[in-house]
Write a structure and sequence with these properties.
Blueprint lengths: L2 H11 L6 H20 L4 E3 L3 E8 L2 E4 L6 E4 L2 E8 L1 H8 L6
Antiparallel strand pairs: 1-2, 2-5, 3-4
Length: 98
């Protein structure tokens, strides 16, 4: 699902009480809050949804497969997501275990 689809679904769910520009601002605020927390090396938790946390990837030696040259890749930050138990139940409630 892309950003415009999310905004369209929100627009339909709230019965057009807010216009799409306002919904886009709300989505931007939510996403910017996640980005700011990750940049500050903090976790962002949304109850009933999940938790985003920064995950550091250590620096290491890597090789270009095309040329074979080796170089040093610097440390990076990635995002790890762990879904809440409630979200996991909602996703798996239709599946039957034999």
């Amino acid at each position: 699902m892309v950003r415009s689809e999310i905004i369209s679904k929100l627009y339909q769910k709230i019965h057009r009480k807010l216009n799409k520009a306002d919904l886009e601002k709300i989505l931007d605020i939510f996403l910017n809050a996640i980005i700011a927390a990750i940049k500050d090396d903090k976790a962002f938790e949304s109850r009933k949804f999940g938790r985003f946390r920064p995950k550091k990837i250590k620096s290491r030696m890597v090789r270009n497969p095309k040329t074979g040259t080796k170089f040093f890749a610097t440390q990076k930050v990635s995002i790890a997501f762990k879904m809440s138990k409630e979200l996991q139940k909602k996703i798996n409630e239709d599946k039957v275990i034999n």
